[in-house]
Input
Amino acid sequence: MNRHKATLILILASSIYVLSYPFHKTFIGGLIYSGGCASMIGGFADWWGINKLLKKTIPKNKQKIFDGLSNMVSEELLTKETLKNLISNFDTSKLVIELVKNNNEIKNIKTTLKLMIEDNINKLNNNETEKMISDLIMNNLKKFDLHKLIAYVIEITLRTEFEEKFYDFILDELILLSKTDDFKKLLINFIDETRSSYEGESIRKKIIDRFKGSNINLAIDIQKKIEKFLHSMKNNDNESRLTLKQWGYDKLDEFKNNNDFKFKIEKWKFELLKNIKVEEYISKVFETTSAKILKNESLYNKLFVTMRNWINDLYENFDTQKKVDVFLKDIINKFIDDEHEKIGKLVKENLNKYTDTMLIKLIESNVGNDLQLIRINGSLVGGIVGIIIFIIKYSLGV
Output
């Protein structure tokens, strides 16, 4: 190791200096003495400089060094342009193919896919998630304008191509209702009550006096007349139908502009929300859905088959490879744009973990030998310079 060589040379130079001192007045002795002295001084100077650099200068300026290194990495070595150019020269689809080209990897995909689905379902299936979704739904329902929605639905029904179908539907339902035995019984009860309670010249008496026969027959006759009347209203130009439609428009406008309706609907909505256990329903949905998904092997098989077909297509289809390459590069480039500034922070965070001792050991382990070469060169060059200076002085008679 160069440290030992440098130390050995320094000891040797010091020994030569000490041992040659008694002979320094002779030419040979002076030559050796001068070389040893200069070599010793050069070696000691470099040793002191390197030790000061490692023990004092570097720890004292550690933060500046770290800032400089992080800036150098992010702004010079790994700039956005450098990273993007590197990615542009690399076919990312080949990397995907390499990852899944052998059967073992393809088999592992299904297992990994299943584990990913199970893991995400288990993460979702917890009280915190259920409460979060429940609160989100409740907050949106409370803010939701139900009156506006009802008015909008009615308006779509009455003022669009669905209008005639809507009225036909209502009339068909009323016709079916008018034919039922329950409706006939209702008419019979009404006639019975009316006949037993009318007196004098009351309106009900006048109505009943128009009909003859038993109550059942009267009810059947009224039932048929109502059915006939409803059938006649199915004609688009029927006067009663037009009246009904106009009544519907008037009621719609009244509903839209009446704040009392809005207040009552909002009040009804909040009363309804108080009794709805949204979190309990969400929990049941999660439990039922997650149980079905986890037990549904066909789901994993379908996803795996879809993925395997896509992988096979990727192997064989150059256009697919090109699309994958473009897709991945777009993602990577966007990631570089969004996250590039974190490179310098990441470098600095990792460098800040180093204590002074750790930093010195790191430098010594990587460039220690090169630093010790400075000591070796200092001793050797110093010795040569010392010899040259002695010869010059001797030649000048100094």
User: Anything to note?
Assistant: Residues 2-60+354-396 form one domain.
